[in-house]
Amino acid sequence: MVEEEEVQHSLPEEATEAGKPEYSWPLLNFHVLPQRIYHFHHHFTTPTNPNNFLKGVKWSPDGSCFLTSSDDNTLRLFTLPESEGSIPLDPCSLASENDSFAATLVMGEGESVYDFCWYPYMSASDPVTNVFATTTRDHPIHLWDATSGQLRCTYRAYDAMDEITAAFSIAFNPAGTKIFAGYNKCIRVFDLHRPGRDFESYSTVKDNKEGQMGIISAMAFSPSHTGMLAMGSYSQSTAIYREDNMELLYVLHGHEGGITHVQFSRDGNYLYTGGRKDPYIFCWDVRKTVDCVYKSSENTNQRILFDIEPSGQHLGTGGQDGLVHIYDLKTGQWVSCFQAASDTVNGFSFHPFLPLAVSSSGHRRFVIPDDGNEDLCLSGNENCASVWRFSFGSTMDDVTDDGIIHQSQSEYGNME
């Protein structure tokens, strides 16, 4: 269990948008099945929790590694083995019983991890900026050192009884100077350089009972409209706020379940929202928010983390069928899909500048022992993380008239 004492380490200095690296993202051919080049399953299997499942995965902003969260209250960091982020040349054998390589860091939390996020200007070559934040049940927000795996400091919110209350969602502001944290009907904002219990609190519900009700479960900042952020709640609503004073601009309704993920388009003009027990991802035009632009199907009964590839033209999302679906963001139309696992794909993240993506799979199961077999474990194609490499180009040569990719299953591994 992580100690609650604050750890004194240097924190990232204030950054600017000019400090972010610029990359050109090549057009990818999503009509050709991607190649699975790395695979991890045994990392997430322990004697005490043989059916431990993943809950999400995210690439680091510099693309050097990715971070996973799993049901055993543990975060694992996997670093790409090639220097300078080059694309792997020798894909792993999918028939191998072993994981592709070992996790670089393993960090255990005391309770269930609600959310995690990278510092926006993170660089593995700069230890000061190489950090990420987590929020955990019954714990304060933790800032972790992604170089050493040590806890740097904590950000603590207290309720009316002076007891620590946990945030359900967290995000760094674009400048990298503050941590925004979502709670029940309120937002608390922490200064990154002032760990401890100092924060600013803003209610999401007004005196006239208008505003955004429920637990703030997801948030995202606009990449182009400076000072604008979106927040989703378990009350099935999404709201747009000003960053500086948390002024409510408008509230979006339409989902059937609690919001679990929100993300802006690359140009900041559109907002994509997804919810639990909701069959659609909604696309909203933040410049005219009376109605949603379109809805894209999403097969989910739990929290699903989708992502937009860096060119801003396509969105990738998983589902309960083990497939990753690719959608055209201009039209909302389905483009293609591929089998990423034999279980629910709950996380999908595009690499920031290489033609790679990482997926995570699994969900909670209540296993009833059969014939005295109490050690029932799932296969290596469930409760796993996989790294995928996409092809370049945009040809339709590998697609049949009915829109199905006609490429042999063996080309990317038998998932049965």
From TrEMBL:
Q: Which Gene3D superfamilies match?
A: YVTN repeat-like/Quinoprotein amine dehydrogenase
Q: Which Pfam families match?
A: WD40 (PF00400)
Q: Which InterPro entries match?
A: SWT21/TCAB1_mRNA_Telomere, WD40/YVTN_repeat-like_dom_sf, WD40_repeat_dom_sf, WD40_rpt
Extract the signal peptide range.
Answer: none
Protein name as annotated: Telomerase Cajal body protein 1
* Origin species: Senna tora
